[in-house]
Amino acid sequence: MVKVKQDLLNSIKEFTLMDDPFMTKVFEDDIERTQLILRIILENDTIKVKKASTQKRLKNLQGRDLQLDILAEKADGTKFNVEVQNESSGAIPQRARYHMSLLDAKSLPKGEYFDKIPENYVIFITREDVLKGLLPIYHIHRTIDENGHSFADGSHIIYVNAKIHNDTPLGMLMHDFCCKNPDD
To answer: Taking a C-beta distance cutoff of 8 angstroms, is the pair 98, 64 a contact?
Structure first.
């Protein structure tokens, strides 16, 4: 029994915010923490989160359900889905697209006009640089091929590379996400 407890304690000491069980507990219904990471990632100190939850299930009667790591919402209906990915295979572009599609589908009440759909964000925080551009953050938006103008449909997909721990607010946040020592 003592060996089992020690093994459990040793496992817990290895947890970082990149690990699902720990991240879930730290951000569970915590508006302030969720708001802080969104403000840092989006470089917007005015974001005010109205509600936040972890491991939120989005049902899909026509297809695959989703279990969202963190789902936050502003008063205007804007939704933020933050996914923490240890494995690169969990952050492929098609998954980001699917998350956005289901988030959008759940953002517009039946009978409402399409211009009422809020801006929505899907943010992947990845242990590795899955887009391989050696950048700390990637903002993905749609553009019109023929003229290069923004399509401006209100969908935002962002990938954050947790490998970069520089002296910027984002770099320091990624350090914290990957850090095992709580004193750091």
So the answer is: yes
Residue 82 falls within a domain, yes or no?
Answer: yes
**Is 144 within the bounds of a domain?**
yes
Task: Report yes or no on 183 lying in a domain.
Answer: no
Number of H helices, E strands in the chain: 5, 6
Map tokens 């211009």 to a residue: 115
Where residue 126 falls (left for φ over 0; alpha for ψ -120 to 50; beta otherwise) is beta
* Calpha distance 54→171 (Å, rounded): 23
Is residue 184 included in any domain, yes or no? no
Confidence of residue 19 (pLDDT cuts 50, 70, 90): very high
Reduce the DSSP state of residue 15 to 3 states and report it. Answer: coil
Quick check: pTM over 0.85? yes
Distances, alpha carbon 6 to alpha carbons 11, 125, 167, in Å: 9, 30, 36
Structural domain harbouring 148: 2-178
In the chain, the number of structural domains is 1
Q: Which residue has the higher pLDDT, 138 or 11?
A: 138
The span from the CA of 4 to the CA of 10, in Å, is: 10
Q: Terminus-to-terminus CA distance in the chain, angstroms?
A: 31
What percent of the chain is modeled with pLDDT above 70?
Answer: 97
Cα–Cα dist 86/71, whole Å: 18
